Automatic annotation (TrEMBL):
CDD domains membership: GGDEF (cd01949)
The species this protein was found in: Candidatus Pantoea formicae
Gene3D superfamilies on file: 3.30.70.270, 6.10.340.10
HAMP domain segment(s): 181-234
UniProt name for this protein: diguanylate cyclase
Transmembrane segment boundaries: 21-44, 153-179
Keywords for the protein's UniProt record, in alphabetical order: Membrane, Transmembrane, Transmembrane helix
Domain GGDEF: 276-404
SMART domains listed in its UniProt record: GGDEF
Length: 404
């Protein structure tokens, strides 16, 4: 459960790529926003200061006569006319003898923290200009700039710029998702193919081509690896089948060995109610020790191979011939189910085995086998039917010794 939870908590590469694209776009747009905003603020500051200087210069020229004659009414009228148009926030006209002719304030001027901050930032101090007549200074005009227009301009500029940046960020995210689709498709093909191979064990699957160079090289390497694993799997299966066959095969005669014989006998006993009875034959070689002593073990091996091949020739396809070890052989006969058929088979076995066997040196060797048998019975076990066949064989061996 913990592993599943951790697996679910891990984000996909699609989400990671989207996060990377969004963060990258957001950082770039934020830097652009800061750059454009800073540039706009510096521009508006310079513009407002320059505009106030031009207004002061123009107004000072028009106030020369009123200042010389100390005509406060005319001066106030001219100043108020421009002030009411929003050219400045306040104006003060003082003569050279410090007589205040005009002290005008814009009563509609907004005064909040935003406007005060802008005013202090744009106009560090009031702007003063001398009024000159006949090369003599006759008065001083002091203006305090207005920030109403600048405040509105900055507010709307920031709103428009921010909205535009957000739209660009959304478009960039959509384009990024569209451009990443090819990468995600290639990765999905690779990962799904690998998962299929892991789950099914089928190494014949091949990863499709990718339009991306790196993924194509990766796919080719994986396909090469899958081809090698498929070849190795085929080789292992072939070797396993070969080893399994050899594990149930007698290496000398090529017949079934004791393990294969017991397995087949167990199967027949388990299914004996669904089919006709069968017979188990035990065959024990006679005078095999003397053959080894007189002609050597190589000759004894040739005799065993000859006995095995002759027994195999007498058996039908559904029968089983096995070498249990040494000169002991066994046969499971399911093709003949009567006593007369069994009698005929045992006679054929004796006659066939009694035929001369030519060993490598060209010497003929004659041998024989003692046969014991046991018919299958209901409730038989492997041990019980083997014991009956073994007892019958030793009984017949005793009879053969008496005859000799």
């Amino acid at each position: 459960m913990k592993l599943d939870k951790n697996k679910n908590e891990k984000s996909s590469i699609r989400i990671k790529l989207r996060k990377i694209s969004i963060i990258n776009s957001a950082v770039i747009l934020l830097l652009c926003w800061l750059l454009l905003t800073s540039t706009s603020l510096l521009f508006i500051k310079r513009y407002e200061k320059r505009n106030l200087e031009l207004i002061a210069a123009t107004l000072s020229n028009s106030l020369t006569a009123a200042t010389v004659f100390e005509d406060s009414y005319d001066a106030h009228k001219k100043i108020a006319t421009l002030g009411n148009e929003g050219m400045f926030a306040s104006a003060k006209l003082v003569t050279d003898d410090q007589t205040v002719l005009v002290d005008w304030q814009d009563q509609q001027q907004r005064s909040g923290w935003y406007q005060n901050f802008l005013r202090e930032w744009i106009y560090a101090r009031p702007f003063s200009v001398n009024i000159v007549h006949a090369e003599n200074t006759v008065g001083t005009l002091t203006l305090v700039g207005t920030v109403t227009g600048a405040a509105d301009f900055i507010r709307y500029s920031v709103m428009i710029l921010t909205s535009g940046m957000l739209c660009v960020l959304i478009v960039a995210s959509l384009l990024s998702a569209l451009l990443h689709r090819g990468i995600l498709v290639s990765l999905r093909n690779i990962t799904s193919s690998i998962h299929y191979v892991i789950r099914s064990g089928d190494f014949s699957l091949r990863i499709p081509e990718s339009p991306t160079k790196e993924f194509q090289l990766f796919s080719e390497d994986l396909n090469s690896l899958l081809a090698e694993m498929q070849s190795l799997q085929t080789s292992l299966l072939r070797d396993n089948r070969s080893l399994a066959a050899k594990a149930l095969e007698d290496p000398l005669t090529g017949l079934a060995n004791r393990a294969a014989f017991v397995a087949r006998l167990t199967t027949l006993l388990d299914a004996q109610l669904a089919q006709e009875r069968f017979v188990l034959l035990f065959l024990d070689g006679d005078r095999f020790k003397s053959i080894n002593d007189n002609w050597g073990h190589a000759a004894g091996d040739e005799v065993l191979r000859a006995i095995g091949s002759r027994l195999l020739a007498l058996a039908y396809k559904q029968d089983l011939v096995a070498r249990l070890g040494g000169d002991e052989f066994a046969m499971l006969i399911t093709s003949r189910a009567t006593e007369s058929q069994l009698q005929q088979l045992t006679e054929e076995i004796r006659e066939t085995i009694a035929q001369k066997i030519m060993i490598a040196e060209g010497t003929p060797i004659t041998t024989s086998v003692t046969i014991g048998f046991a018919w299958s019975q209901h409730g038989d076990s492997v041990e019980s039917i083997l014991e009956r066949a073994d007892m019958n064989m030793y009984k017949n061996k005793g009879i053969n010794k008496v005859r000799i």
